Amino acid sequence: MDCLFEKGLAYELLGLASVSEFWDKVPDSEPRLQSAGAVLGSKKSRKKQKIVPLWVHADGVEYGERNSLMIWSFGSALVEPAPEASFYLASFVKSVTYSGGVFSTWKTIWQVLKWSFQALWDGVHPSSDWEGVPFPPGHPLAAKAGSAIGGYKFVIWNVLGDLEMFCNHLGLPHWNKLNLCWHCDAHKKDASKYYGHNWKGHGWELYDAAEYAVALDHALFSLPGVSSWSVCFDVLHCLDCHGVASHLLGAALHQLVYQFVAGKSAAFARIGHIWKRIQELYQQEHTKYRLPNLTLNMICNPDKPRQGCSLTAKAAEVRHLAPIICLLLDEGVEDEFWLHMKGAVQALATFYSLLEGEPMFMSAEASQATLTCMETCLEHYAWLREACEGQGFIACQEKPKCHFSWHLAYLSRFQNPRYN
Predict the structure, then answer these.
(1) Which end of the chain is more exposed for a tag (fewer CB within 10 A), N or C?
(2) How far, CA to CA in Å, does 359 sit from each of 22, 113, 165?
(3) Is the distance from CB of 326 to CB of 349 less than 8 angstroms?
(4) Which residues are within 8 A (CB) of 144 and not within 5 positions of it... i.e. 6 or more apart?
(5) What count of other Cβ atoms lies within 10 Å of the Cβ of residue 16?
(6) Spatial separation of the C-alpha atoms in residues 186 and 142, rounded to whole Å
(7) Tell me: the pLDDT tens digits for 211-245?
């Protein structure tokens, strides 16, 4: 961080001109503020102290043929996500990561990172190292000890990642548990508190952020202002990648193929016809992010097409395919099944459009429309799941991500999920 100030890059890459505007727009009902209590102080105090909201992100990436690399990074929540505004924190190879006891690999790494983020919160350079040992005279950091870090303070506002990172690394409730949510009292054994047709009349009760937060042992949550309410549901993991959108669009494509033909060779021919029409619609709608191709293997196992379907594609390709699928469905039949399918996909496409067209802090009307779209999508999705089961194949599966997608949309009243 100090380097950014020294090189004159901090103002642009951290969006420092927007600090006051950010805190002006954060509503007092924001759960992260409620959970932090007096730590973050009043709006006037946050602006006066020039507190910059940060995000931290962790995810595993492929490393070799049978390994992965966990990478942590951070940046300012005041700027649009971009590679040049994302900064590396730490990484470690999974196969050589030790996860037990006081010598846990990531526990040790996070003690160092905690020391660094604590200094950012304090707004001054530390006078001792991460183990509490004072810097000796002549140490490179001793000369800076006690001096301001650019005249700003920093707080971790968004904690980003996928469910595996949240549950297995940070210690949040696992998605396989009956009580799986850290925002409400959802329970898998009670349909009204987890999943069903009536998403607008759900039975779960939201926790009060001022009174409740999940107790977490990870060092990240011992930092000022950081709690389980800082952990964000995001569009990428709830919808695009193995989520509601990929399952729904996969089911739509599956039906566009198999409702009209039978047999593998006919299905391959049918998907080719559909792909040709999608390309025509891409051109017609001037779609920016497009599938490079479309095969049966991208939506199901051609040898077992009734055993599940989901679209495998990049996130941006999934998002921009939704309105194209809407147009495709308009060209189809008008029975009850297709009306529910069109209703679900149209609601999803409108949801994406709302997020794309709104700033970080959405209007009350837009955030309510966002929630309505998600609830509508999920209600149709639930109907489709049961209808597909009745026809003897698996589609629109009931997943924890359905529940988390509702929270994603609900929380848009505090921050546009596009910025998560």
Answers:
(1) N
(2) 12, 31, 27
(3) yes
(4) 2, 125
(5) 20
(6) 50
(7) 999 999 999 999 999 999 999 999 999 999 999 99
